[in-house]
Amino acid sequence: MLQSKQNPQLKYVRRLAQRKFREREGKFIIEGVRFLEEAVQADWPLELVIHNNGITEQTRAGRLLDLLGLRGVPMLAVDDTLFHGLADTESPQGVLAVTCVPEGLNMDLQVWAAQGRDLLVLVDGIRDPGNLGTVIRCADAAGASGVLMLKGSVDPYNSKTLRSTMGSIFHVPVIPIGERDRLLSQLFSAGWRLVVGDPGADKLIHQCDLTGRVVLAVGSEADGVSDEVRQAAWERVRVPMPGRAESLNAGVAVGIMLYEAVRQRTV
To answer: Which of 63, 205, 232, 250 could form a disulfide with 184 if both were Cys (CB 3.0 to 4.6 A apart)?
Structure first.
């Protein structure tokens, strides 16, 4: 059992708490028994599993470690003090893993549409990790084909974002977009309709046709989407709010938009 915090592998894991280092390395950390189980079920590649010594005595966690061992995943046992120094949660479950950001995600909008993958979410400026995690989780639940991430949004591999996805990060492609204008041009050329959530819009979400090739765009609660995305919209819509609340957070708003799309596609 490892007891030295100077171990190079542990130093590397600690550095993955920094966004710039994660992006440079193409790696991120997942933590907790359930999260690792989700990764295993999705056949997600795990590079290193770190656990404290006591977790092997837990039946569920022990089975997980046995399975990972059979798959040849490198594992490292550490004492409780070292593990707490690596964990991001207040009450860690005693196991975490280093895994990879997927490379070369193929976003061919024409091919996707031909395959029937015709519902996407565009994230523009969401900065709250919990909100982004909820967006990804809702996209997964609604059967969306991907979540497109414009620059200026929170890191999807932030530990808080990951926990909020509840494992959906392994099920739906989260695709970084380098050039906003190029994406908007590609969407138009490929026949996708950009529907922007906008509290100031006249049309209600259920009054908009969300069948066919649709991209649902959502921005931050404070600022909404960028002017460029708003101007490129095929339609701007709002969620009906007969109550007294002034706004909904991005995660709730996109969930409503997605499930209106699901409703229209299943009636």
So the answer is: 232
